Amino acid sequence: MNDTLTNVQPQITNATEPNNGTCWLYVILIIIAISGILVTLYLKLIRPQWKERQKTKQQLLQQSMVDFDNVINSSFAAKELYDKLKVKCHPDRFTDADLNKEATRLFQEIHKNKYNYKALTELKEEATDKLNINI
Amino acid sequence: MILANIWNQVTDWFKDRSERNNVIKSFNESAKMAFIMGTAPTMLKASYSKGCSAYKHPFSAWINTGFRIQALAGRALSKEEMVFIGEVVLNNEELLRRLVALGWDTLEVHDDKGQYGCRWKLIDYINMGIMIE
What we know:
The complex is a heterodimer of chains A (about 140) and B (about 130).
Chain A: H1 2-61, H2 68-88, H3 97-112, H4 117-131
Helix pairs in contact in A: 2-4, 3-4
Chain B: H1 2-37, E1 42-49, E2 66-74, H2 79-91, H3 93-101, E3 106-110, E4 117-121
Parallel strand pairs in B: 2-3
Antiparallel strand pairs in B: 1-2, 3-4
């Protein structure tokens, strides 16, 4: 009985080996198929979107450098200066037609640059010169 | 070809990270100098925050999408001051575009204590003149 089993054992092993090989072949084929799908998805969907985003991003970043000193100064000093300028440069304070026109323009500029301390400082200088006022 | 593209994407990601760090660093440097010189009564500090997932846009980064400005030292900020600081950032077009392009989607201005503060959805304030979905 033992002899018979000993003789049969190598045959059993040989019979199972081709099945293992086929199984691994299927695994490899599935991996290749999944890789192919992923590469196709990347080329068709992700890459064009990425390229488009990069292009838009470059357009956005092609700006002059941000003046952080002005941002910080504006955060604390712009409101006070704006409040002062909007009173001093109000068009109703100027009865002369030319001055009134200039004051209207400056008033609009002041309102537009409400949050920009640097621009408000320049407008203050301009108002002092053109409207003959002390600020 | 594909490997080169993937490599470019990886290098772009690192460049973006570097640029984001530069923005934070420059802001903090200016805030520190303004506080030392006495032009700012409160020392502000910019940092990353988690951000709000509802404010996401196509340029949003994967993580840390919030740009938080917080009072660090000096006197506490009032609500009006916090709103004004936020408005200053939102009205600075160059800074706003840079923040959006570098992956931030939420602006937060906080007091030095707890989570009391204001926040804005950045993409609502940008006027890019180009189409984004």
